[in-house]
User: Which sequence fits this backbone?
């Protein structure tokens, strides 16, 4: 666990939230149990890519399908595998504030470096409610917090609302994943000097170069382990350099653009198929094709069909 006081959280984050951070899936066995060995293997695989840090039980980690005990067990496995020398974040969003605080306590005890939290996806229909809810967490924990702004949680905060959240002492920034490019740009321009703003897609890097702002961390996506292999980590290389101000678009076009085109095709297609839900089944099967543990997606989400899997596999041949 990082050693910093609540008042030092932003300074810690400015120094340590850098480069490519990953989003970990939660692999399941055929009999629908946590695949702990698979999760450990996935972390080792991702660390071999050079990824700077990782988060668990996020949207892609199917937190919504996990029991409290399972979420905490994932925390324990991730913390053990990180070994204190790979920064890690725990997603603690819950509809019950007591459950959120219990998850935060367990993450702190396990040795996590920071937390990520979003709106609790039920009765928080106003920005004021969301700010008050995140304040409950910020008042309770000494850990740094990144707020997750995403339509998956039922409300998308405005730049003004994000500003209010970032005024909380240990809220260090925002994962701005609203899929609203204008909002992402406004958040960077309005908040980027005083907080860490991260939009988890490469388009923001080109826009930042155009408008004069830089992003210090890609916090966090699945592109590292979907696009890269050990010994051929072009995406991680590109992001790490871009986060230091070296935006090499020729390198991107040569090594990343082809697989990104496949990703964009399947991402949009899978989101549409499931009515707007995150494309967890796509990423799980893609991970399997890269040699990682994945398994099925739990209900009520759905899995790719056998035909879709064969088509995706064919699309990826020669580009990863």
Assistant:
């Amino acid at each position: 666990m990082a050693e910093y006081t609540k008042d030092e959280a932003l300074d810690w984050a400015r120094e340590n939230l850098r480069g490519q951070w990953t989003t970990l899936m939660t692999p399941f066995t055929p009999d629908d149990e946590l695949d702990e060995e698979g999760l450990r293997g996935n972390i080792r695989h991702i660390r071999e890519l050079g990824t700077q840090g990782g988060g668990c039980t996020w949207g892609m980690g199917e937190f919504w399908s996990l029991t409290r005990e399972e979420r905490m067990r994932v925390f324990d496995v991730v913390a053990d595998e990180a070994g204190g020398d790979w920064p890690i974040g725990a997603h603690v969003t819950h509809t019950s504030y007591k459950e959120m605080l219990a998850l935060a306590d367990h993450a702190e005890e396990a040795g996590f470096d920071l937390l990520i939290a979003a709106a609790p996806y039920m009765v928080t229909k106003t920005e004021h409610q969301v700010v008050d809810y995140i304040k409950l967490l910020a008042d309770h924990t000494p850990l740094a917090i990144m707020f997750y702004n995403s339509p998956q949680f039922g409300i998308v905060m405005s730049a003004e609302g994000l500003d209010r959240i970032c005024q909380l002492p240990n809220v260090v920034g925002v994962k701005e994943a609203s899929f609203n490019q204008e909002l992402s740009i406004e958040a960077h321009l309005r908040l980027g000097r005083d907080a860490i703003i991260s939009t988890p897609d490469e388009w923001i890097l080109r826009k930042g170069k155009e408008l004069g702002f830089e992003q210090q961390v890609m916090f966090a996506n699945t592109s590292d382990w979907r696009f890269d292999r050990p010994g051929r980590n072009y995406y991680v290389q590109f992001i790490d350099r871009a986060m230091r101000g070296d935006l090499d678009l020729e390198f991107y076009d040569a090594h990343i653009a082809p697989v990104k085109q496949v990703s964009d095709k399947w991402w949009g297609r899978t989101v549409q198929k499931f009515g707007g839900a995150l494309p967890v089944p796509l990423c799980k099967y893609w991970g399997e094709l890269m040699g990682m543990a994945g398994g099925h997606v739990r209900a009520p989400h759905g899995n790719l069909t056998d035909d879709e899997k064969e088509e995706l596999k064919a699309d990826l041949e020669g580009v990863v």
